[in-house]
Amino acid sequence: MTKKNLILFGFILLKFILQYVLISPEYDLQRDEYLHLDQAHHLAWGYLSVPPVTSWFSYIILQLGNSVFWVKFFPALFGALTLLIVWKTIELLKGNLYALILGSICVLLSCLLRLNMLYQPNSFDILCWTALYYALIQYLTSENTKWFYYGAIIFAFGFLNKYNIIFLLLGLIPAVLLSKQRKILARKEFYFALILGFLIILPNLYWQYSNHFPIVHHMKELTKTQLVNVNLGDFLKEQILFFIGGLFVILAGLYAVLFYQPFKKYQLFFASFVFTLLIFIYFKAKAYYAIGLYPIYLAFGAVYISDIVNNGWKRYLKPVFILIPILLFIPIYKVAFPNKSPEYMVAHSESYKKLGMLRWEDGKEHHLPQDFADMLGWKELARKTDSLYALIPNQKETIVICDNYGQAGAINYYSKKGIKAVSFNADYLNWFDLSITYKNLIRVKDFEENDKEMKETSPYFETAVMGGQVTNQYARGYGATIFVFRNAKIDINKRLEQEINEEKNEIIND
Question: What is the largest CA-CA distance in the chain?
Fold first, then answer.
C-alpha cells in the first residue's frame, strides 16, 4: 500500500470511528430514522415523505438484522465516500499530498460529522452533489463524453433520493450558458445522457402522477410550518458554520476557479456557486439544504493553497493551515454532537443558545437542540405500549394508532410484541391493514392533543383507560399519552376508512 493510500485509509477509518463514538448510548434513534426504516416493509417507487432510494437502503439494513450498528453504518459510509470523492478531485486537479491532507481534514472535521450521524436522505444527497460536480470536472478536464452518462446516472439517483438536487441543476444551467462551456449543448451525447437520466427517474414521476403529486402538498405544508421561520441572517450564518474550519479553503477555492490560471476551464463553478446559493435564498430553503454545495470547493481551495505555500517563507504556513480546522473543531466537538447527557446540555444551554442550536423548526427556542430532543423517549414509549398491548387478550384485533410518524416508527422498531403501529401522518396513511376486523384501539396522543381524547373516544368503547405517558422531560415527545380502548361499540374499520379517505382527499385538494 502506497503512502497516499495509507493516509486515505486512515481518514476513512477515522471517519467511521467518529460517527459511532460521537453519539452517547443514552440517545435513541432520531424520529425520521424510524419512518425511513419502516419503509423497508413497504417498498414502492415513491412515498409521501421522500423518494424511494432511502427505502432501498432500509431494505438492505433489514436484511442485515436492522440493528443500530447498520442504521449508523450507511450515513457514515456516504460521508466516507464524499471524503473519497474530494480526495479524487484533488488528485484530478493535480494536487500534492499536502493538498490531499488539507482537503480531507476540512471534510472530516465539518458539519458532515453531525449530518452523517443520522439515517436520513441528507447524507446520500451530499454524496450525489459532490459526485455530480466531480463528473463535471472530469468532463471539463478530459472532454470524454462518458462523463455525461455518469453525471446523468448520479443526478437520477440523487433525484430518487431527495428532490433537493434539482437546486444543483438550477444553479448549474445559467452558469454553463454564460460560460464557454455552453458548447456542451451541441454534443449529441449530452442529450442521450438526459434521456438516460429521465428514464431512471420516470417510475418515480409516474408514482407522483398516480398519487396526485403529494410532493406539492408536502412542500406547501413545509412552507407553512417550517420555511416560514427561515430568515436570511440565520441562513447565511449557518452557511459559515457548516465548514467553519475549512472556510478559508472554500474561499480560496472560489477565488481560484475565478482567477487561478490552471483552473481557467473550471470558471463556471464560481457562477454556479453564486446562482445556487441565490436560488436557495429566494426559496427560503433551510440552511442545511445547501451543504452539498461546499465539499467540491474544498478540493479547489486545497490545491490552490498547496501551490501558493509550496515555496519561500510561505512554506511555514503549511502546518498553520492544517491546524486551523483542527483547533476550530475543538469547541464544535463540545456542543455539536449528542455526546453529552441532556442534563449537561441544559445546564450549559447558553453555549448552545449562542450558536442558535436551541431554535427549532417552529422558530422558537427550546431546552435542547431539536435533533437531540428527537432522539429521546422512544424506547420508553415502545416499552410502555408493549406492556399495555400484552394485557389485551385479543391482540390481533387491536390497532395501535399514533399522532405522528416518529411514534409509530419507534414502536414498530423497538416493539417486542410484533406491533405494527400506524398513523394518519406521513407515509403511515397508506399502511393501514384494513383486512383485520379491529375491536380494540391503543391511541398514542401528543401532549398538546391528549386532553380531549378520553372524552371524545371513550363513548365508542366499553372500557377506556389512560395507560401511561412518556416521562423523559428532555424528549421532544415528552408527555405523549397512551390510551387503551377495548371492545368497540362501532365498526372501527369503517371509521378508519372514512378518516383515511378524508386525509387523502385533503392532500389531493391542497
Answer: 87
